[in-house]
Amino acid sequence: ETGVTQSPTHLIKTRGQQVTLRCSSQSGHNTVSWYQQALGQGPQFIFQYYREEENGRGNFPPRFSGLQFPNYSSELNVNALELDDSALYLCASSPALNTGELFFGEGSRLTVL
Amino acid sequence: SQKIEQNSEALNIQEGKTATLTCNYTNYSPAYLQWYRQDPGRGPVFLLLIRENEKEKRKERLKVTFDTTLKQSLFHITASQPADSATYLCAQGSSGGSYIPTFGRGTSLIVHP
User: Do the strands A44-50 and A31-37 form a parallel or antiparallel pair, or are they unpaired?
Assistant: First the structure.
């Protein structure tokens, strides 16, 4: 059984640029959640997708957008990057809604210069 | 607003002792609380989930309690080992429309040989 995989693992961008992060959910999981984790902080919820529809959104501006594909993989897009967007972006999948337990990938470390 | 709090100070203990980490919540009653382990630069790994109608859960050397009167969960690691050194995250899920876990900032545990 393949776990959650994320790409790229590390990337560096400059202010104003756009970035796309990718996530393949664990086999059999139809729900994907994205979190942002700044250094020394806990993961902050960005949004969740369930069967290709957005199921919930945290307190993030519209320049954070996402997508879930029919195979349940997902993308996180961030436009007009700001320095404060530098963080570890975590993708987590779960086998269904409201199961609670999340299976995380290793994250994508984004640095904005 | 829903808030979950963990001690930001690192917990230092000697190998073989029991480590006890605290998670407090205010202004709401979560349907469940979860505990995750996170190693530096890695994604969180799920450890235990306890529901509001449960007082205690155990898994090998791990034990978690849920006290709805004190609005607190305690996470215990018995016979701690240096390999248990990591950051431990508490997360809550509420039944008010969404079970999406929201996380505390985590507590760093350092087990000294």
Answer: antiparallel
B92-97 CB contacts, 8 Å cutoff, 24+ apart: B92/B2, B92/B4, B92/B25, B92/B30, B92/B32, B92/B33, B92/B34, B93/A100, B93/B30, B93/B31, B93/B32, B93/B33, B93/B34, B94/B2, B94/B28, B94/B29, B94/B30, B94/B31, B95/B31, B96/B28
Amino acid residing at B34: Q
Select the residue of A43, A44, A101 nearest B49 (Cβ to Cβ): A101
Q: List the single residue in B with minimal CA-CA distance to A37.
A: B105
A93: nearest CA partner in chain B: B100
CB < 8 Å to A41, chain B: 105
B100 vs A contacts (CB less than 8 Å): 33, 45, 48, 55-56
Q: Per-residue pLDDT for B63 more than 90?
A: yes
Each residue's pLDDT tens digit, A9-47: 999 999 999 999 999 999 889 999 999 999 999 999 999
Taking the C-alpha atoms of B72, B78, B81 and B83 in order, what is their torsion angle to the nearest 10 degrees?
Answer: -50
